[in-house]
Each structure stands twice: as C-alpha cells, then as structure tokens.
Specification:
Elements lengths: L4 E5 L3 H13 L4 E6 L9 H16 L2 E6 L5 H14 L6 E4 L8 H12 L29
Parallel strand pairs: 1-2, 1-4, 2-3
Length: about 150
C-alpha cells in the first residue's frame, strides 16, 4: 500500500494540482493537503483553492483531506502545524511542499525506504532529493546525521 502523503501548500495552486496528478498516477490513495491562509483574503482565494483541491481529489480517486488555515502562519509555523496535523492521523508518510516536482517513481522509492527502515531506531527521517540530474543512478543510500 502506498504511503499516505501530505502536501504543504500556500499559493502555488497549479503546482499542487500537478503533484496531485502525479501522486494519483503513482497509486497514492490517502492524500492530505494543508493550505496556509492569506491574511485579509477578502475574495476567498484560498477557499476556492481548497474546493478545487477537493474536486480534483475526487476526480483522481484520491481520499483527500484538506486543512485550510484561517490566517497566514508563515512558512515555519505552517509546515510544523501541517506535520502535527498529518501525524495526528498517520504513523508515517511522505511529506511534499508545493514547489516540488517528483519523479515517476518517487513514491515507490519512499515506500521501500519506509518499509526498510521501519524498525531502525536510528532513523527519524528519510529524505529524497536529486538536485544534480546528471547523477540519476546510484547504488546504496547515502547517510547523514542531524
């Protein structure tokens, strides 16, 4: 089963829709979207965004849960509270920000790593990035300490 996935969002609506389509193709079924608010949003831009996320989730067959904050919390607090919200429902999962573009096999990779490291007390987080596209293949996983 594909891991539940959280998208932390603010104003990059089209990026979120693209991520949702990519996640649906990768067979994610449980999606959470935490949307930060906009102070003084008189025309309710974020409310329309929330409604569009829900509609697209239904169209794509995603079980979509959306949390729209009433005010702008800023990037730090928005991410931390989104994580708290997500992990109040899920034990583990994939966290994506709304400015990411993920590969066609990203969810499979995260799923494998979550399974492989599930019982490893030394692993608190699994992170994936490929900033240098010329190094698309590698053997093994690099480790780092925080």
């Amino acid at each position: 089963m594909k891991p539940p996935t959280l998208i932390v969002a603010y104003k990059r609506h089209e990026n979120v829709f693209k991520l949702m389509r990519t996640l649906a193709v990768q067979k994610v079924t449980m999606l959470y979207v935490a949307i930060d608010g906009i102070d003084g949003d008189a025309d309710s831009t974020q409310s329309r965004f929330r409604d569009a996320v829900i509609r697209l989730g239904e169209e794509l067959g995603l079980n979509t849960h959306v949390w729209l904050r009433e005010s702008n919390l800023g990037p730090a607090v928005s991410v931390i509270t989104a994580l708290d919200w997500f992990f109040s429902y899920e034990e583990s999962g994939v966290i994506l920000e709304d400015d990411l573009e993920i590969s066609h096999d990203a969810i499979v990779w995260f799923e494998q790593q979550l399974l492989n490291q599930r019982n490893n007390p030394l692993v608190a987080m699994i992170s994936g990035s490929l900033l240098d596209q010329s190094k698309r293949s590698f053997k093994g996983l690099p480790w780092t300490n925080y």
